[in-house]
Structure formats: C-alpha cells, structure tokens
Amino acid sequence: MKNILVVCGAGASSTFLAHRMRTAARARGFEATVKAVSQPALDSRMPGIDVLLVGPHLAAALGTLREAAARYDVPVALLPDTVFGQGGEDDALDLAIGTMPDTDLAQFPAHRTTKEFS
C-alpha cells in the first residue's frame, strides 16, 4: 500500500483531485491511499507518505516544500496545470507512481493513453 499526499493552498482543489485519484488507482489495481492537505498542515501529515504531489499554483513554494519533504525522505513532484481537468487524475497518478523510486508505472497503466513524466 502506497501513501500519496496532494498539497494545495487551502486543501479544497486537492481534496477533489485526491478522490478522483483514489478511483483511478482502484481501476488500475494500484493499492494506494490518496489524501489531500493544505500547505499549513503539511508537516504534521508527512510521516508515512511515499510521495508528495504539489498543486501547480504552489510552484513558487516548491523549494520550501521539497525541504519539508526531505526531512521525511519523501520524493516531491509538481503537478501540471492539467490535473484538475478531465483525465487529470490519471496524469496525477502516473506522476505519483513514476516519482516513487520502487514503483514501476508500466505495472499500473491507465485505461487510456498516458503521458510520460520525467
């Protein structure tokens, strides 16, 4: 079971995305919890997380968020602007899976053509 945390400014948009990502993960057979958190509450939610996904509107704070995550050895990825649109949950899940060092994206393909993230 992998633990994915999505952070945004207030937590509202990330909550919707996290719900959609949970559904996408189940459809792929990828066992994961996907939770959302606001930026101010981030530090208390980091223990036990496998990857931190950062909302695109927090790009300016990415350095600070990477530093916070590094204290817990958690990899961080910046979500593209497209994740809040149709199919964005698959793109976000691809990014999460691809960012975790011990997880292979090829084992959990989306039901549609996916983009490669680096």
Automatic annotation (TrEMBL):
The modification Phosphocysteine is found at residue 8. GO terms for biological process: phosphoenolpyruvate-dependent sugar phosphotransferase system. Keywords: Kinase, Phosphoprotein, Phosphotransferase system, Sugar transport, Transferase, Transport. The keyword ATP-binding does not apply. PROSITE patterns: PTS_EIIB_TYPE_3. It comes from the Bacteria. Residues 1-106 form the PTS EIIB type-3 domain. This is PTS EIIB type-3 domain-containing protein. It comes from Subtercola boreus.
